Amino acid sequence: MNAIGFSSLLVVVQIICISSSTHLNGKNFVVGLQSSPVHLYLTRNASGHVVEMQGVAVKTLAALSQRFNFTYSILQVNDTRLEKQSNALLGLYYYMKQAKCDLVIGAIGMTVGRYTVMDFVEGYAYTSIAIMIPMPQELQNVDAALLPFQFSVWIALVVIMPITAVAIYYFSRPLNFKKPADESVTIAGSPEKGVCSETNSKISKALFQIFRVLMSQGGSFRIIRPALYFVVGSWCLGAMVLISAYNSILTSYILGSNAKPLVDSALDVVGNSNVNIAVNKGNGVDLFLSAAEVGFYKQAGDKVRANPKSRCKTTGDCVDLVKLGSYAYLNSMFTAIDIINEDYQATGVCHLAIARQSEAMPGSLAWVLPKNIPYSRIFSVGFMELHEAGLIDHWTEWELMKYKNATYCLQEALKRQQRKAASKKETKITLKNFSGPFDLLILGYLISFILFVREIVHFKVSNYCKKRSSQKITTEENKDVGGNGK
Questions:
Q1: pLDDT band at residue 9 under the 50/70/90 scheme
Q2: Are 350 and 414 in contact (CB under 8 A)?
Q3: pLDDT tens across 81-139, in order?
C-alpha cells in the first residue's frame, strides 16, 4: 500500500470513529459492576448499595466518559457476576436482558457461551491464567547424592563390575598356586603383606576388590601378569573418571534448589496424574474449560469433569484444596495475586505460590454490552487510545503495588526454586546444601559401627568358644590320665 492510500485509510477511520462517537454524546449508561481484583473494588453500605468504586476499570470508565461525552449511573444490585448464582442473585446479564443495564464493566472473560447472548467490548486488558500451587517447601537434599547416577549409569555398573571381576579371576587364577601368600601389591594404595592369600581364589572376592577401587578405598591384588595389569588399570582409570564426573555433577545438584514445586507449567498440570485441578464453579475459567475442544484447555476441562471436587463453590474451598498439596488452582493472574495477598494477611505465612510458567489466555479481558448494540467498536477505540497512551498499564501497575504481601510471597517462592549462580560473590553454600551427602555419610558410619560391633562380638564369642573347647579337651585328657593311673 502506498503512502497516499494509507493516509486515505487513516482519514476514513478517523471519520468513522468521530461519526460513531457522536452517538454517545449526552447518553447516560446504567453500568453493572462485576468486581474483580485490581480492576474493580466495591464498597457497600449496610443496605448493600455501592458507595465507593476503585480500580483500573473505574478510571478507564471515567476517561472514556470524558473522551466520548457520555454520563453513567450505577446499577444498585448485589450481583457481582454475569451468570445467575441463585434465586436471590440473578446475575448481571438478567438485568441487561431486562433493559435495566446498558454496560457491565470489570475484567470479564470471553467465552463461546457468552458470545451467543451478549456483545463484548474487546481489548480492555490482557492477562494470563495463573496456576496457583502450594508454596514449595525446602526438603532435605538427600537426592543430591544419588541424582548424578542416572539409570543408565547404574545399569552399566551392574553389567561391567561382574565382567571385570570374571576377567581378573581368569587372569590371576593360575598364579594363586605359584606365588607366596605374603607377596602382594596394592592398586591405588600402599603395599600390603599377607592380606590377599585367598582374595583372587573366588570371583566374589575379585568383585569386592574392584568395588573397593570404585569407592576410592584401594584394592589389593597379588603379583600379576601384564594382561591383568591392563584389566585392573583400566578399571582404576574408569573409576577415577566416574568419581570425578560424579563430584562435578554433585556440585551442580548441591547448588541447585531442593524445593520442588507441585508443577512448573500447564503441561505438568494435565500430564501429571497425581495433580488435580481446582476452579471456581461458574466463573470465566470454568466456563472456558468446559467449552474448549482442543489443546491444553480441552485436557484441563476433561480433568475437571473427571473430579467432582474440582469445581469449588467458593474461592476459600479452592484455596483449601491447594493447601492439601495435590491441587493446582486455575484463575486469572490478578485474582491469584489477590488471593495470595489475602491469605498472607490472614495467616502471616506464605502458603501459596504461582507456577513459574503461566498459560496465555486466548483473547483479552472485556466489558459487556447487550446484544446488537452498536457501541462496542466505539469503546474498543477508546481502549486502544488508552493503551497507546500507556494509561491502562500505568493504572494496573499502580494497583499491583498495593499487593506487597503477594509480592513478598512470590519472591520467596522464586528464591526457593531458583538455581544459585556459582559465579556470584553473594552465593553461599551452607550445610543445608550438603544434607544429602551428610545423610549418606551418617548412614555409612552407622553401618561401619554395626559391623565393628559385630566383629568384636564375633571375636569375643570365638575366643570364648576356643577357651571352652580347650578346657574341655584338657579336662578329658586329665580324666583319661587319672583313669589310666588307677
A1: very low
A2: no
A3: 888 878 888 889 899 988 899 999 998 888 878 888 899 999 998 888 888 999 887 66
Q: How far is CA 249 from CA 147, 246, 470, in A?
A: 9, 5, 58
Are 67 and 385 in contact by the 8 Å Cβ rule? The answer is yes
Rg (CA), the chain: 38
CA distances from 126 to 123, 305, 437, 468, 475 (A): 7, 27, 47, 90, 100
Q: Which SS3 state, helix, strand or coil, does residue 140 take?
A: coil
Contact 350, 322 (CB under 8 A): no
Task: Tell me what pLDDT residue 55 has.
Answer: 92
pLDDT per residue as tens digits for the range 203-230: 777 777 777 777 776 766 665 667 777 7
Handedness of CA 258, 262, 265, 271 (dihedral sign): positive
List residues bridging with 28 in a β-sheet.
71
Give the helix ranges, DSSP H, for 256-357: 266-271, 284-291, 295-306, 315-324, 333-347
**Cell matching residue 405:** 504481601
Q: How far apart are CA 398 and CA 39, in angstroms?
A: 11
String of b and e for 183-218 (b: at least 16 CB within 10 Å)? ebbebeeeeeeeebeebbeeeebbbebbebbbeeee
Distance between CA atoms of 117 and 372, rounded to whole angstroms? 10
Rounded CA gap, 381 and 282, in Å?
30
pLDDT at 450 over 80: yes
From the CB of residue 466, how many other CB atoms can be counted at a distance below 10 Å? 10
Determine the Cα–Cα distance for residues 176 and 161; give it in Å rounded to an integer.
22
How many whole angstroms separate alpha carbon 416 and alpha carbon 356?
12
Q: Which of 130, 139, 134 is nearest to 349 (CA)?
A: 134
Return the C-alpha cell found at 177: 598356586
Helices (H), 348-434: 376-389, 391-400, 404-417
Cell of 398: 499502580
For residues 129 and 331, is the Cβ–Cβ distance under 8 A? yes
Helix (H, G, I), strand (E, B) or coil at 477: helix
175 pLDDT exceeds 60? no
More reliable by pLDDT, 396 or 148 = 396
Helix (H) / strand (E) element for 312: namely: strand 311-312
pLDDT over 90 percentage in the chain:
15
Please provide the size of the chain in residues.
486
Joined grid coordinates for residue 222 = 597379588
Identify the band that residue 142 occupies on the pLDDT scale cut at 50, 70 and 90.
Answer: low
